[in-house]
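Hi P.,

Sorry for the delay on this. The queue was packed all week, but I finally got your sequence through. Input first:
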Amino acid sequence: MSQENMRAMMFLGPGDLELQEIPIPQPEPDQVLVKIHAATTCGTDAKAYRRGHHLMKPPTLFGHEFAGEVVAVGSEVKNFSIGMRVVPHNSAPCQVCFHCKLGQENLCEDLIFNFGAFAEYAIIPGPIVRLNTFEIPDHISYTQASILEPLVSVVHGQRILQIQPGERVAIIGAGGPIGLMHLQMALRSGASQVIAVDLSDTRLKVAEKLGATAIINPNRTDPVEAIRTLTNGMGADVTIESAGAKAAWLTALNAVRKGGRVQWFGGLKSGETIDLDTHWVHYGELTLYGTFHGTPLDVQRSFELINSGVIDTQALISGELPLERVEDALKMMIEGEVVKMAIRPDLPAQ
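Then the structure:
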């Protein structure tokens, strides 16, 4: 491929995005170059846009969920060829460090991340090509396939929780894409109740459509009291926090039953702390989980969930916008007006 330029959204710092024209990257021997057909906005993108992110050192390419068409391959690439429709995960572990050998590849000491989804083209690094890239079947659209990365994290979190048939689950921040995927997975695990808590009525309607047994807006109702009422005064067996807010972390802690399990899924800013009622944690015999990212096993399982249609990916996409409007898409997510937006580089500027 001859040297040409492409449009790419650059992250220059919190609240500062700029669409720039930069050279189209050329693949090294173990890499693949993809023409991006769809990239989806993510809660992590929104958080980075608002306050920065420790993995994104500006100036840097932005976005990490995409799917597209292979347009060039390195000389050592064997399993992919020009014209293939592919979706990569956004990371790959080293497979040789202490954590990788224990099956905790998500905690790899040399985890490779790949950013640059909000652009016309993107390189897939060699380790991701070898381990975490898949050919998209014909019945799955580029936009549906691009949901792979966030679903991986949800599948990992659900694998840790091991929700049992008949358990009652409350999801704090249930109307975002992560919460809606947790909701679908919990229902598939046999939860008898999945209670959705969110500040956006628009998003709560989506949660209800996907099977939430009850919806709660904390702007009108105390979520802890409501969850306890819905569970006969006991509290939920499992609470999942997916809002990435201190208030939501505490709600998840206070709405769980004695002997229950709490998963803090939404990350807070580095150095941020919360006050815990140690009496409640200790004598309530609570199990508290942090969770981060996912392993190659989670990636494989997530890809199969998308292919089979078990996860309703269409319900997570609120609309499409051109590359020029990434910032607008993130603002709509932050305001709770949409769940996720698909960014299509081929769409004309509006």
